[in-house]
Amino acid sequence: MQIGIVGKTNTGKTTFFSAASLVDAEIGNRPFVTIKPNQGTGYVTAKCVHPEFGKQCMPQNSKCENGIRLIPATLLDVAGLIEGAWQGKGLGNQFMNDLMQAAALIHVLDCSGTTDAEGNPTKGHDPANDVRFLEKEIDYWVRGILEKNWAKISKGATASSKPWEPIADQLSGLGMGEAQVKDVFESEHFGPKPSDWNEEEVLRFAAEIRQRSKPMLIACNKMDLPQAKENFEKLKKEFPEKIFVPCCAEAELTLRKAARAGLIDYVPGAKEFSAKGDMNEKQRHALDFIQTQVLDAWGSTGVQQAINKTAFELLKLIVVYPVEDANKLTDSKENVLPDARLLKQGATAMDLAASVHSSFAERFVAAIDCRSKQKLGKEHALKMNDVVKIQLSH
User: Fewest CB atoms within 10 Å of the CB: 10, 69, 148, 248?
Assistant: First the structure.
């Protein structure tokens, strides 16, 4: 799974990325510090099921720390946007191309209002404008891709019994699936003949496709600064349909680096840390500030919460554990609960088999719920934290 870290320039995107992945990316208080995309691994975290079974897990595709399963996700920190990016201004074309295969986006927003529309330091900027701006840029970009061959596409769609197919073909390179395009086309928001659509209808179509194929969570960054709390409450009222997470990426990065240096014990997403190494006065003061102004105030730095909410609330994923031995909960090499897999809510036992290996779907016979030992058919819908044995034909 790939998650794009997006936003206008100088909002803390790269700090968020570095805090989540511990990749040492260049961070600076000026526009366009990020030119080439930074790629790293972050983690979706969930309580591991091993304590329930009285066993110690032996993760292979993930990690388990203090009973928390860490499931890897690729994070991509792309170039910051400026207005007119869809027309190629700034690094707009590169930004858009880098996001093609992202399953979801985390919009890192300067909630303190101290970054203007061009990414320069200021005071009193309304972050609500940035919410609208970023969505608009992506919508116009998608529309631009449709309009490159719109006369031919719309004519073919109007004449076809499956009018969504020519449109889906045009958008396939953006990671936008045919099923998503079909759902939007059949949503009754658009006329049945694409050849009759005007520019506004094509833009609305692009916006709906973007919402479905690139859902976006908003990480309200710089929550330790003045005005951020007031702006955060205003944003929630103005955009009640969106997911906002209060965030302080700089605090998370400081905590992660302090933990790596052995100065503190800290689990990403936790509401506190414990000192364990010798610190100088400056280090102690910085960590005390983070505890009182960030962790005590907001319950966490918000970075891990943003990733988890992207997975579980925005993308509506569940964690499922496939095994080969229903009693021992092991794979063929005796690894206990070796894999934790992220699947869409409603995913079936057959979907789980296919996620393990493409050939498993063809050889699927049945599945076994390792808790109840009941046999499950291929259409059985799985639940969060199911542990499942897949039975295959030889």
Answer: 148
Question: What 3-state class would DSSP assign to 185?
Answer: helix
pLDDT in tens, 270-312: 999 999 878 999 999 999 999 999 999 999 999 999 999 999 9
Q: 148 with 175: CB under 8 angstroms?
A: no
**Domain spans of the chain, in order of start:** 1-37+78-126+215-315, 148-212, 318-392
Whether 355 and 343 have beta carbons less than 8 Å apart is answered as: yes
- Residues 39 and 44: their CA atoms lie apart, in Å, by 16
How far apart (Å, rounded) are the C-alpha atoms in residues 181 and 160?
15
Q: Where are the alpha helices (DSSP H) in 36-176?
A: 50-53, 92-98, 127-147, 150-159, 164-171
52-69 burial, b at 16+ Cβ within 10 Å, e below that, comes to: eeeeebbbeebbbeeebb
Cα separation, 44 vs 344, whole angstroms: 14
Weakly modelled stretches of the chain, pLDDT under 50: 25-35, 90-92
User: What angle, rounded to 10 degrees, do the helices at 164-171 and 127-147 form?
Assistant: 110
Place of tokens 């700090």: 15
In terms of DSSP bridges, do strands 341-344 and 317-323 run parallel, antiparallel, or are they unpaired? antiparallel
Q: Which fold has domain 1-37+78-126+215-315?
A: Rossmann fold (3.40.50)
Give me the sign of the Cα torsion angle 77, 83, 86, 89: negative
Which residues does residue 265 pair with via DSSP β-bridges, in sequence order? 274
69: β partners: 46, 64
Residue type, 388: V
Beta carbons of 20 and 44 less than 8 angstroms apart? no
Residue 55 backbone dihedrals phi, psi, to 5 degrees: -125, 160
What confidence score (pLDDT) does residue 285 get? 95
What pTM was computed for the model?
0.91
Which region, left, alpha or beta, applies to residue 385 given φ > 0 means left and ψ of -120 to 50 means alpha? Answer: left
The residue to which tokens 């909002």 are assigned: 11
- The DSSP secondary-structure symbol of 95 reads H
The CATH number assigned to the domain with range 318-392 reads 3.10.20.30
Number of other CB atoms surrounding residue 151 within 10 Å:
9
Beta bridge partner(s), residue 115: 121
Q: Helices then strands (H, E): number in the chain?
A: 15, 14
Residue 27: predicted pLDDT: 43
Contact 3, 74 (CB under 8 A): yes
